Amino acid sequence: MQITLIFPPSWIPSQPFLSLPSLQGFLRQEGIDNVSIRDINIEVMDTLLSAKKVNETYVRLEEMLSRGKRPFAPTGQSKKSFGHAENKDEVFSRLGWAREVIEYENLFQKIEWAKATLRSEGFYNLDDYVESWKIIDRWLQAFGMLYYPSEITITDNSMKYSVYSSSDIIMAANDDNENPYHDLFKGQIMNSIIKRGPSIVGISATATSQVIPAFTLARMLKEMRSDIHITMGGSVFTKLIDNLQGSHGLFELVDSFILFEGEHALLELANQIEGKGDFSKVPNFVYKDGEQTRVNKPFHIEDINSLPTPDYDGFPLDLYLSPKRVLPLQGSRGCYWRKCTFCNLHVDNLRFRQRNTDLVLEDITKLIEKYKTENMFFSDECMPVNQLDSLSSRLIDEGIEIKWMAGIRFDKGLTKGILQKARNAGCLKMVFGLESSNKRILTLMDKGIKTDTVQNVINYCTDSGIAIHMYVIVGFPSETREEALETLDFIRSNETFLDSKGASCLPCLFELEKHAPILRDPGKYKLTSIAHPKHDDLSLGYVYETNSGMAPNEAIDVYGYVKEEIDKRLPIFPYNFSMSDGLLYLDRFSGDARLKTAALAHCNTNGQV
Ligand code: SF4
Fold this sequence. Notes:
Structural class: alpha/beta
CATH superfamily of the largest domain: tm_1862 like domain
Largest sheet: 7 strands, mixed
Bound molecules: iron/sulfur cluster
Low-confidence stretches: 70-83, 603-609
Distance between the termini: 43 Å
Shape: globular
């Protein structure tokens, strides 16, 4: 029994994601040794960022342009070469633009330089760091023109198809002209997956940016080996649990879905495929049984103290665009607060669980020894204060030297002593959700935080030398323009935060997400209508109207203003661009005030990648 687990594009290429190493560790612990994990996201990015790929693309552009000059091909052929026939002039001019960019900006050489810079000491030269991401962004724009109107960016992709519609996803997966992932997967990637002879392929999609690439991969695998059981997992599908329950077209491309946590689900799936094939025994499983779609309940919740250390073997750790390995790990699953009325993260984890500190220490020690890294990212939704305290004490007592960061709440239990201890234990940054500084909005959000606690924690962090990232939400239902600007003023006037090393802040536009507690009592939040577009049978959110505060369109304008104002004070690079890059910069430049000045200059002149 061979099991291959795949992490598809698009995802930030700075560090690996935790899901597949956790699953691989568990399957091996349970005696399934023939498991392999593939980060196709970084494999594809590595291939794309090469002089060879630039050359191939240039030749293809020349061919397409020369065919277009004689004059445009007849309709059938032009569809293949130039996208929609009616767009041929625009497509032609975009292909010409891409060829010019590649040639005049010498992307043949520069792309290799950019990739090498980000993987080497040059990463720490802020000018070169920013320039590298700009070159990569430019090259991906040019490459995407082959598939116009589709686009690829560093962390995302877009096509004319909606990722919220099953019929669109199926069309996208079958569109070899405009879906770039068909060309990117065919050949080496597909052959290497098939060569291992898997009985099960699990594809994990944690973001909507991965949905079309994931189903494209599934379709291509089915064409090559229809007997492989393809199962799709990840938080995107867990949130779609009720949508998958009806008979669904996506079963044309995959055999099953795994919801919530996948450890025992994959183990039992392997048992059933080798044994009696009784899928009703597989926990957290959605599958087709004749004309019926079955969802196996009750859902299984993992005991995280029985899980092993994540196993990153098989991930190409030296391919990430980073000079050092930054590995994610978890000290807990779920959120101990679980009350914020806009948040649907509670859906991914049915219950909050905390891993024993002894085991977390063991994980850290094993990762240091096995993967030669001292940089770690706790990807918990929200590290509990008691765990922060005990973990910091143990790291200090046992002399374990790591540099790390974690997501955490502005909890009133975060004392100066605990934060100083965390810093002494190597914590360089904490990621908080401020969301708002307005009392009425914070109460409506049920954040359970007060602005005086927020200010105390900011002061304690900066005194201790821990950098701060804050998320802010603009446009929460019933929020007025004045209330949104009050939050902006809280940040704009907070010199302690703004002047602190490594500070970053990302405003987000409010989105009414599926399963958010708000939906249980829309009247309380002044929502007058809630709907999702008819076509979008896989919608992860809703459009809404409100009779109080900013209308959704006004919220978009205010969000734009808030973002612009925050960008003026806080540099995008490196801290607002990539958390793991920011961790490495903090480690290297602790105490270097020049970095912030230089980064601001970049922000003001270059904008965001
Ligand atoms: S926003 Fe954060 S603290 Fe609030 S419920 Fe969600 S994960 Fe928990």
